């Protein structure tokens, strides 16, 4: 750890990587909470893997791959949302098909891009150590969009997340806010791509919020705790991977996964003790 702290004070690329991890934690904390509570992780996975098509097309035509990712993510979110609203009986199959098509299109575009396709592994598994300043500004801007949108429409998102029928009775335009929520998930996916890549993005999007959900049931509290846990996992993952020269993204996810399993065991034990106490009080 001392070696990492010394290198952090010396090397600009490590400082950029740390900032990228902290910026990504905002998205995974705020939007990941909605994904976990509403149980739309599979839909978020479909959005994430469809993004490779946009990144590959942008790379092929000489454009910014993350601009292509953002366009593809929002398009996929709207398409998957429409599928969910209109084709409920075949929802999983259609989302799975979009997932696979997006990946296949992306790989084909990258394969036909002139020159050496060194970016493919970076897209799939992330490369936070190579995050340029330009992408940090991208991430900060996307974070601002997420936080402002959620703050403006928090009550509507809350209603749509917990009970769509009740929200509809209260006059909330459920379809609009549901699709808007999926678009925010799409923006968050683009945020996390630089950190852990497309393959692992769903883990970082959901695990911090899932851990927070073991201990609190308020949506706002879950967001705050999940954001803090996201910052912890990205920072510790960066530190732990530095010395032995391990891939940073998978190290972050492995750390988050281990903490999630431990938290699930602890939470279950606490729940059992609480149930025993309540049963003892009833018998007493």
What does this 3D model show about the protein?
This protein starts with a helix and ends with a helix. The longest helix has 40 residues, at 174-213. The chain is built from twelve helices and no strands. With 284 residues, it is mostly helical. It has helices at 2-10, 12-38, 41-60, 65-86, 91-112, 119-125, 133-152, 154-162, 164-169, 174-213, 219-242, 248-283. It has a single domain, classed as ABC transporter involved in vitamin B12 uptake, BtuC, CATH 1.10.3470. It is found in: Cell membrane; Membrane. The chain crosses the membrane at residues 12-35, 42-61, 67-87, 94-116, 136-154, 175-193, 199-216, 223-243, 249-267. It is a multi-pass membrane protein. One of its GO terms (cellular component) is ATP-binding cassette (ABC) transporter complex. Its main location: membrane.
Helix-strand blueprint:
Blueprint: H1 2-10, H2 12-38, H3 41-60, H4 65-86, H5 91-112, H6 119-125, H7 133-152, H8 154-162, H9 164-169, H10 174-213, H11 219-242, H12 248-283
Protein name: Metal ABC transporter permease
Subcellular location: Cell membrane; Membrane
InterPro entries: ABC_BtuC-like, ABC_TroCD
In brief:
The protein is mainly alpha-helical and 284 residues long.
Low-confidence stretches: none
Percentage of residues in DSSP E strands: under 5%
How confident is the prediction overall: mean pLDDT?
86
CATH architecture: Orthogonal Bundle
* Number of discrete helical segments: 12
State the separation between the terminal residues, measured CA to CA. Answer: 52 Å
Rounded to an integer, what's the Rg over CA atoms? 20 Å
The CATH superfamily name is ABC transporter involved in vitamin B12 uptake, BtuC
How many domain regions?
Answer: 1
Order of helices and strands: HHHHHHHHHHHH
Helix fraction, binned, reads over 70%
Shape estimate: globular
Classify the secondary structure makeup into a structural class. mainly alpha
